[in-house]
Every structure is written in structure tokens, then in C-alpha cells.
Amino acid sequence: MSGLAFLIPLALALGLIGLGAFFWAMRGGQFDDMDGAGMRILIEDEE
User: Following CA atoms 15, 20, 23, 25 in sequence, which dihedral angle do they give, to the nearest 10 degrees?
Assistant: First the structure.
């Protein structure tokens, strides 16, 4: 029973950290151009 008292807050804390990382990435523009990165790997540079 004491294991649950340790694991439940740990799981909630890890979930909040993951949610915070998701919102940080979303605010940083990581999901703005979802198709661009996939297409840039197919296009050759003309330098």
C-alpha cells in the first residue's frame, strides 16, 4: 500500500511534465509546419 502512495504522485508528476513539454513545444512552433520537414528531405539543394 505504501508503494501506491509513492507511485501515484510520481505518475501524476510525470504526466504534468509531459503535458508541460507538449505545450512548450506547441508554443515554440514545433507543430506549425507538419508537411515542410517531410518535403524538404526530398528536395535537393541547388547550391
Answer: -100
Q: What share of the chain is helix, strand, coil (3-state, %, to 5)?
A: 65, 0, 35
Per the prediction, the chain carries an average pLDDT of 88
Residue 35 to residue 46: CA distance in whole angstroms: 21
Q: What is the mean pLDDT of residues 18-31?
A: 92
Query: What is the distance between the alpha carbons of residues 10 and 4, in angstroms, rounded to a whole number?
Result: 9
**The Cα angle at residue 19 between residues 6 and 7, in degrees rounded to 5:** 10
Tell me the whole-structure pTM to 2 decimals: 0.63
